[in-house]
Amino acid sequence: MPESTSARPTYGNWKLPSRPGVGALGLLGTAVLLGGIIVTLLTALASWVAAAGVAVTVIAVTVPLAIRTPDGRSGFALAAARAGWTIRRLSGQAVYRSGPLSGAGDGRFGLPGPLSATRMLDGQDAHGRPFGVIHDPAVNTFTVVLECDPDGGALVDPGQADTWVAGWAGWLAGLAHEPGLLGAAVIVETAPDPGTRLASGVLGQLDPAAPRAARDVMTEVVSAYPAASSETSTYVTLTFRPDAARLAGKPARLAGKAERAAEMTADLAVRVPPLA
User: Fold this and answer.
1) Strand ordering across the sheet containing 119-124
2) Long-range CB contacts for residues 54-62, cutoff 8 Å, separation at least 24
3) Of the residues 61, 67, 129, 228, which has the fewest C-beta atoms closer than 10 A?
4) pTM, to two decimals
């Protein structure tokens, strides 16, 4: 018998769990609000003027806590970020200059902030393909970035979507057995599609002998489709720390940082292809 439609799993519509407390105040804002109401009522027994002052203070504290951005930050967090940015801009810390003519470290064109200590290491995997490893000497971590090309769910059979999800779940489960793996992250970048790849792919294959109506339709698709589409880039980052697993079971040798980094890069050269 055919499988019931209601029994098929569905994916999507993920949302953050609701915050404890009253509305958008959260737990801290709710505690401040309830505590402020109690203090206001007790103060009102002695003086209405003092009670009004306490009420105004409570409102001034709770209103910023009730203002929430889509990523969950409160009004106080926004004000602190803006104040910090203003201080750094006035002190000149918001401008980063690198290169041989700057006073930044060794004169290299490095990244700003906490990423200034990171270095890119070159390696070659077991199949002879070059790859890069981001080394952070400050915390002794090695990060590999994998560029992915995920397929969309449009016009895909439910069984195929279930197979994809099961494969992704199996890959995530396999990460638990990776020695020295600190964590994995998925980064999805979405931007308006300029339509250059579509234009080069379609216009380059137009047959001059095709009917004019067909050529006009394809030309119209090339000009109109990018306005409603997006270009999506997906990356998976895997961060390792050699000391956490003794370089995948190998005994750690008393060597310098350069030797240890080269040894970790050689170890990742064997482990990256199966993960990719």
Assistant:
1) 119-124, 130-136, 141-148, 230-240, 181-192
2) 58/32, 58/33, 61/32, 61/36, 62/25, 62/29, 62/32, 62/33, 62/36
3) 228
4) 0.62
pLDDT in tens, 202-239: 888 888 888 989 888 988 888 887 666 777 889 999 99
β-partners of residue 181 are 240
Strands (E), 67-180: 119-124, 130-136, 141-148
Q: How many CB atoms lie within 10 A of CB 222?
A: 17
E strands present in the chain: 119-124, 130-136, 141-148, 181-192, 230-240
CB 57 within 8 A of CB 43: no
Other Cβ atoms less than 10 A from the Cβ of 163: the count is: 12
Cα-trace Rg, the chain: 28
Q: Identify the residue whose tokens are 């004000």.
A: 79
Query: CA 223, CA 246: separation in Å to the nearest integer?
Result: 56
Please count the other Cβ atoms lying within 10 Å of the Cβ belonging to residue 97: 9
Residue 106: strand, helix, or coil: coil
